[in-house]
Hints:
Blueprint: E1 19-20, E2 24-32, E3 36-43, E4 51-56, H1 60-73, E5 84-91, E6 96-103, E7 107-108, H2 109-113, H3 120-139, E8 152-155, E9 158-161, H4 193-209, H5 217-221, H6 228-235, H7 246-252, H8 282-305, E10 355-362, H9 365-378, E11 384-390, E12 393-402, H10 404-416, E13 424-427
Antiparallel strand pairs: 1-2, 2-3, 3-4, 4-6, 5-6, 7-8, 8-9, 10-12, 10-13, 11-12
Helix pairs in contact: 3-4, 3-7, 4-6
Amino acid sequence: MSTPRNATMLAWPQLQGRVVGDGYRLIRFLDGSETSGRFEGKTDGSENANVMVQLFSLTPRQGRERLELWRSLQLLNEPEILKVLASGTADWPDLHFDYLVTELPDESLAGVLHDRVLDDDEARQVVKSVAAALVVMHDHQFVHASVQPSNIYSVGDNIKLSVATVQRPGASDILAEPSAYQAPEVSSFAFSSASDIWSLGVTLFQSLTQQLPGDDAMERAAELSAPFPEILKHSLDPISAKRWSARWILKSLGTPVTEPTPSLDATPPQSSRIDLGRPKGRSNSVFAIAAIILFLAFLWLLFSHKKQPQHPVVGPSRPAAPVATPAPTPVRPTPPPAVVSTPPAGSAATGPVNWRVIAFTYNRETDATHKAAAVNRTHPDLHAEVFSPQSGRFLVSVGGWMPMDTAKRLRQQAISDGLPPDTYAQNFRR
């Protein structure tokens, strides 16, 4: 069997006429790259072309992860998100692809901008729709990773954002290819909700000028009509922690902001917050039991030596382990290992951009995800997200990656805004 890597953009049109999944026939090649191709398709036996089929050349692990994401996104039914109809694998005798089937767009924003700029009403509608789509994705702890005109479509009267490149924050295997729309920190760190906002700002600037933002972007943005200068100012900030959230962009447009939608993961969160001052996970209980046993042994030796009647010892509120159990030797907790991405060197003015501000720590990813969504509801400007520096330890971080001075200032701001007083800043350098 040929490997997916043998498929190139030149070969995509040759796949017209083939059938994928439950009878989706590829009838017209739209566009593609070396690793993916888009087709206009129809349900086999139907006369109308009413779907878009995207084929992807992925490794087996990438394919499994991508299909799991697409099936989760299929549960969403939002007017600003391109509807997922099906996904799966296409196993032909000579080729293997993973596929995604969505509703068929009428036109892409890239096609419009090739000919003209948008007027203010059109630009407002694009920003409103894309921001609304990002609110839903970010609430579910997804990032789009490729907000740009070629992934923004019109479907009837609606403006919709594609879903093919959607991923979890911090994921290393991505479908988004490098582009001029990516935030400056993406070259060193993973995609985040803040990087989506940067990409939306670049898209908005191009929609109103037909050009990508340069060094004079803010001067040119100031000449635009309201509210676009303010949106661009807070979307194209080079410090990710200072960028607006998608909700703040909707508020600047005067759009009612909906409450976060329920998580696609139905597992209820734990109600208790874990103490940040100790190692998390199973080691908590080990240290607690060891401390109790050692304390009881010390009291026994003390009273036995003085030959005094032994008095009952009042234990802690939680049940103590039996005295007969040998006490494990306490192990000094090791600091969390570095994140996968290597921090950039930074400048003399800012220092390395390898700090994070940590507000909560959990043993389960679902709990951390719920807490991050709750923080974003009340403090959308903090851009809370889940960060896992080691297996079984899930941190709720605010503001993304930043230099040390910025992290210290953000920590004070977060505490002033009502986050726990033990919120801390930490260097996660490798």
